[in-house]
Amino acid sequence: SLGWIDGSIALSAMLTTEEAPYAVDNEELKMDVEDVDMTKWTEEEFEEKCTYIVKDHTWEGPLENTELTRAIPKWNNSGLYLLVTIYSNGEFHHFVDGLVEEKSNWMRYVNPAHSQQEQNLAACQNGMNIYFYTVKAIPADQELLVWYCPEFARRLNYPASGEIMMQKLKQSLIEATQQVTEIKHPGKREHSVSEILKDVLQEPSRPLPTRPRCPNSPDRPLYPSAVYPLRPSLSEDFLKTTTVFGLPNRSHRQCSVTPSPSAHSSLESSPESSPTPASLEPRDTLLSFSPALYSRGLNHYPGYSPAGSMPFYPNPHYSRYLMPHYPVSSLSGPPTLGGIFPHMYPFYSRLVPPHVPFPPGMLPSEGSRQFLLPPDSLAPRDILLPAATSAFSAATSLKDKPVHGHGNPYAPAGGSPPAGSAASTGRVPTKPTSAILSTSRSEDKAINLSKMKQGSTGYKTLDYPLKKQNGKIKYECNICTKTFGQLSNLKVHLRVHSGERPFKCQTCNKGFTQLAHLQKHYLVHTGEKPHECQVCHKRFSSTSNLKTHLRLHSGEKPYQCKICPAKFTQFVHLKLHKRLHTREHPHQCPHCHRNYIHLSSLRLHLKGYCLAVSPSPSCSLDELNRVNEEIERFDISDNADRLEEMEGFDVESMVEKQIFGLLWQEMDFKASYHKGSTGGDLHPPPPALSIYRLNEHGSEDSVIKVHCSSPIQLLPVKVKKETEEAMET
DNA sequence: CTGGGGATGGGGCCC
DNA sequence: TGGGCCCCATCCCCA
């Protein structure tokens, strides 16, 4: 009974069953549904009152039905595509693009309702998904016609109903037509189209200025020129499913935007009841489900503000930096898309001059994935686009505050330019972190929405389960087992392993795992050095470097060589210095060729591992050599230094543990051992190797003693790294 | 080889 | 929950 099959996916049960045509719960079903205007429901109401959703499933019916195939080109022929914007936490998240047949679903074939009377579906966002809720009974053979629920429409900057949209469309068409007339007389305009076009066309070949100016505030830099992170959670699948809004006819590649302030303002003021002289057939012209481009998510971009709050700024220079994520198609013919749908494209329409073709490599038909590729591989770097969020607040925060302990080092005075004030008005970019798309559950059965909702937040967004410890969730990295106090810390940490660097610098394309790192990095391009030494007034880009520098004034040299009196202000210098000593092993075994840097290493060696003395009959030569190798490795490690510095500690015992841990790890053997002095049940003694140990009186025991309190803690002991405190002892 | 500085990575904590 | 900030560690470059 449905004509909305694309050959692979079909809408099923919910809309076909006469008994339950409504996606409402049983209680609601008892109501006289005709009395309820569900088109006025909010998304929350839809969500609350809807009991079942019907998942897509493969169409198992006959495909040769000509009725079905006829439905398919309906959109394509008219240049209409389903393109839905998904928001997450109020921010743009991704698009669902109906153009990609294999990745979209039957929704792409549902036409928009151009009157409330004919509307029988309401589109709502639920989580990361778009749902069509039935708002009235849908008999068999009735066409599905959808419009947004009011809330969703508002978020998309759409009119509340299809009728209003149609009125606006017609009005916009008039405006657009007038605009075309204006364009033919460039003398009336501040910039001619050709001027703008020329400028834009030349732009890609220009080097990127480090600090582009914000069009709204010429004296303020656009800050930073970093591009917003490519959404980190973009899986390959996601990229495939969210390709770009495209053109049906590639001969029409003109980007279409509404550039004219007058057009915009007139539209703003155009009443919804404006006359409708244009005789447009709605189905042929309406761009259904085109997105409200970043109507929220990009508000924080400099140069962008919600519709009506700011005049259009035809700055082609700036537009190079801030383009929407995807090219925008136009309807064929003079009325540009932006002219017709200025509300749909509030962002883009402000940034790109009219009739500006897409830069090479960024043609609409080429897909959004290109935006995610390295710029060098396809388009000028300038075109590297911001994703849903940006790092524009970068550095702003840095400068808006005095640095701790140093007067006002951010003062623009010392040559450090004022940081992007433009960003100060911007919103902090939303996360680049991994929002797991909860799009595809394949169950055919109905899913409880509330349950689904619960499963998509918090730690469950991780792709592996977290353990619990003492009733609390243990935020442990599943790769390096490092634990964190907070989930957010773990999430950030996981980027270390995944290689995910969602914060991209637009200037040099370098990626960073954290926004703060990008912010700091941006100072490289600006040359800004916000941290000033109060003694010599030398400026530094980072507090760390300033702190290091301050040691020069204080004379503090916290890193001291243990072998010679050399002291250093930086640890790295000590490390380099230590290499000089690595060839020197002052502690030589009197019985064999082995020598050690540390006395404790030699002593350990002498405690039973010296082959020349008296190797244990229970221990093979290979095993002893292995132990000695580990002692040597330990000897040249930083751990040896650190252990030596520890007072009141059984160093030898610790050394043994260290070495033993290494062996345990690397050889995967288990040493045999006795129970500790306190007794207690330990693991059964492994047979492979006996390890020797000195007892408190200096005589050798035949086995290494493992303290009962830590029978299996044989991994190298975590010791605080060489710190100033440690060095001072 | 030493010393100074620049740049970046990683993580903790606070809000 | 995630951004912002801070700190420490580390690597690298250069004089």
Automatic annotation (TrEMBL):
Keyword annotations from UniProtKB, A to Z: Adaptive immunity, DNA-binding, Immunity, Innate immunity, Metal-binding, Nucleus, Repeat, Transcription, Transcription regulation, Zinc, Zinc-finger
One of the GO BP terms on file: adaptive immune response
C2H2-type domain ranges (all copies): 475-502, 503-530, 531-558, 559-586
Location of the protein in the cell: Nucleus; Cytoplasm
Chief location category: nucleus
A Pfam family the protein falls into: PRDM2_PR
Superkingdom of the organism of origin: Eukaryota
Enzyme class: transferase
Region (Disordered): 201-222, 249-282, 398-443
Amino acid composition bias (Polar residues), ranges on this chain: 431-440
Gene Ontology, cellular component aspect: cytoplasm; nucleus
Annotated EC: 2.1.1.-
GO molecular function terms noted in the UniProt entry: DNA-binding transcription repressor activity, RNA polymerase II-specific; RNA polymerase II cis-regulatory region sequence-specific DNA binding; zinc ion binding
Composition bias, Low complexity: 258-280, 411-424
Domain SET: 44-149
Family stated for the protein in its record: Belongs to the class V-like SAM-binding methyltransferase superfamily.
Entry function: Transcription factor that mediates a transcriptional program in various innate and adaptive immune tissue-resident lymphocyte T cell types such as tissue-resident memory T (Trm), natural killer (trNK) and natural killer T (NKT) cells and negatively regulates gene expression of proteins that promote the egress of tissue-resident T-cell populations from non-lymphoid organs.
Family annotation (PANTHER family): PR DOMAIN ZINC FINGER PROTEIN, PR DOMAIN ZINC FINGER PROTEIN 1
Subunit relationships: Interacts with PRMT5. Interacts with FBXO10. Interacts with FBXO11.
Annotated protein name in UniProt: PR domain zinc finger protein 1
Species assigned in the record: Sinocyclocheilus rhinocerous
